[in-house]
C-alpha cells in the first residue's frame, strides 16, 4: 500500500474509532437506564446489572458500526476535501478510483466481520440476556414471550404481533397435527395473558377472533368458528418451570434458522417471520459495505470539517436506512412482501445512490 493510501485509511480509522467509542458509551449509558427499575424494585446486584449491560453490547454493534463508518468517512474525507488534499491527490495523477477501491475492500472486510457477529455473537448474547432476565425473578411464563416471532408453549406455537405487558394484539395459535394434516389455528385481534405458574398453566383470554373446529362429517377437515370472547388453557413444558428457555429467532444462528424454517414448512405453518429474520440479519451485515459505497462520495462532495455536522449527517442517513428497513421488515413478516427479496430493498436503494455519486465524482 502506498504512502497516500495508508495516510487516507489512517485518517478514516482515527475518525471511525472516535465515533465508535462515543456511540458505545452513549448507548451503554442509555441502556443502563432501563435497568434502574430492577435495582430499585428488585434489589438486583451490580454484578447482575453489569452482566446484562455486557450482553446488550453485541446487540448494539450492527447499529453502531454503520453510523461509525458513515461518520468516519464524512469526517476524514470531508476534512481532506475541505483542505484541498483530495484535489492535490487528483492533480498529482492519482485516480480516485484507486482510493475508492481501497475503501470498497474495507467495506467487504467490515461486512464479513458483521456476518460473524450476526451469526454467532449476537444470537449467543441475546439468549444469555434472556436467561438472566428470566432468572431475576420473573417466574411468569409470559416473560419469555416476544412480539414478532414464534413462541413455543407445550405443543402449541404462538405468534403475537404486539405485546404490552399482559395484553396483546393480533395473536395466532397453531396446534400442529400428525400425519401431515394442517395445523389447527386460533386467531384473535386482541386479548390478555393470565399466568398461573404454580399450576404450570398459561391462560389466554381471546377477544374477537376465529378458531378451527373439526368437521364431524369429515374428521380430516376443519371449519371456521367466529367468537367474541374465548379462553384457551395451555399446559406449559416442565422445562419452562425450571427456567430453561426455548430459543427464539433472535437467539438462532443462520443454520438454526434454516432448520426451524424447514420444520415449520413440514408442519405447513407460515414461516415468513423466520425467513424475514434470516434475510434481515444477512442484509444488515452487508449494510457496512453499503455505507462505505455511499459515504465515500458524500465525504468528498460535502467538503465539511465540522465534526458535529458530519456526525449528525451520519446519524440521519443511517436513521433513514433503519426506518426504511423496519417498515419493509414489518411488511415481510405480514406476508405483503417476499422476505427473500424485500428486506434487501434498503441496501439496493442506498447502494445505487452511492454508485451514482461515485460515477459523478469520477467522471466530472
Unreliable stretches: 238-243
**How many domains in all?**
2
> Averaged pLDDT, please?
80
Q: Fraction of residues in helices?
A: 55-70%
- Share of residues in strands: 15-25%
Ends distance: 26 Å
Q: Would you mind describing this structure in some detail?
A:
The protein is built from 12 helices and 6 strands. 60% of the residues lie in helices and 19% in strands. The protein folds into 2 domains: 3-136 and 278-363, no CATH class; 155-235. The longest helix is centred in the first third of the chain and has 40 residues, at 96-135. The chain has 364 residues and is an alpha+beta fold. The protein has a 6-stranded antiparallel sheet with strand order 1-2-3-4-5-6, with no helix packed on it. The model is unreliable at 238-243 (pLDDT under 50). A hairpin with a 2-residue loop joins strand 5 and strand 6.
Tell me briefly what this model is:
Helices cover 60% and strands 19% of the residues. By secondary structure, the protein is an alpha+beta fold.
Amino acid at each position: 500500500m502506498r504512502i497516500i493510501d495508508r495516510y487516507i485509511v489512517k485518517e478514516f480509522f482515527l475518525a471511525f474509532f472516535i465515533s465508535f467509542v462515543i456511540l458505545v458509551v452513549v448507548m451503554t449509558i442509555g441502556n443502563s437506564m432501563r435497568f434502574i427499575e430492577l435495582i430499585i424494585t428488585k434489589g438486583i446486584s451490580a454484578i447482575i446489572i453489569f452482566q446484562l449491560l455486557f450482553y446488550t453490547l453485541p446487540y448494539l454493534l450492527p447499529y453502531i458500526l454503520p453510523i461509525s463508518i458513515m461518520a468516519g468517512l464524512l469526517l476524514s474525507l470531508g476534512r481532506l476535501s475541505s483542505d484541498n488534499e483530495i484535489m492535490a491527490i487528483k492533480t498529482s495523477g492519482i485516480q480516485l478510483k484507486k482510493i475508492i477501491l481501497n475503501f470498497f475492500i474495507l467495506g467487504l472486510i467490515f461486512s464479513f466481520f458483521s456476518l460473524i457477529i450476526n451469526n454467532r455473537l449476537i444470537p449467543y448474547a441475546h439468549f444469555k440476556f434472556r436467561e438472566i432476565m428470566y432468572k431475576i425473578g420473573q417466574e411468569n411464563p409470559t416473560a419469555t414471550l416476544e412480539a414478532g416471532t414464534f413462541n413455543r408453549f407445550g405443543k402449541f406455537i404462538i405468534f403475537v404481533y404486539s405485546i404490552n405487558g399482559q395484553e396483546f394484539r393480533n395473536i395466532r395459535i397453531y396446534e400442529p397435527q400428525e400425519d401431515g394434516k394442517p395445523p389447527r389455528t386460533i386467531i384473535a385481534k386482541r386479548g390478555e395473558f393470565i399466568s398461573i405458574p404454580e399450576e404450570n398453566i398459561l391462560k389466554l383470554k381471546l377477544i374477537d377472533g376465529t378458531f378451527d373446529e373439526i368437521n364431524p362429517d369429515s374428521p380430516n377437515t376443519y371449519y371456521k368458528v367466529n367468537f367474541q370472547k374465548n379462553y384457551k388453557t395451555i399446559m406449559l413444558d416442565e422445562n419452562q418451570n425450571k427456567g430453561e428457555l426455548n430459543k427464539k429467532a433472535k437467539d438462532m444462528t443462520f443454520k438454526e434458522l434454516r432448520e426451524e424454517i424447514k420444520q415449520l414448512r413440514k408442519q405447513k405453518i407460515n414461516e415468513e417471520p423466520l425467513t424475514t429474520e434470516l434475510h434481515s440479519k444477512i442484509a444488515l451485515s452487508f449494510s457496512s459495505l453499503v455505507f462505505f459505497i455511499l459515504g465515500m462520495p458524500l465525504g468528498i462532495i460535502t467538503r465539511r470539517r465540522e465534526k458535529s455536522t458530519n456526525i449528525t449527517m451520519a446519524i440521519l442517513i443511517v436513521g433513514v436506512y433503519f426506518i426504511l428497513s423496519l417498515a419493509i421488515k414489518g411488511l415481510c413478516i405480514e406476508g405483503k412482501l417476499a422476505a427473500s427479496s424485500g428486506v434487501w430493498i434498503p441496501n439496493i436503494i442506498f447502494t445505487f445512490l452511492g454508485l451514482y455519486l461515485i460515477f459523478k465524482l469520477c467522471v466530472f
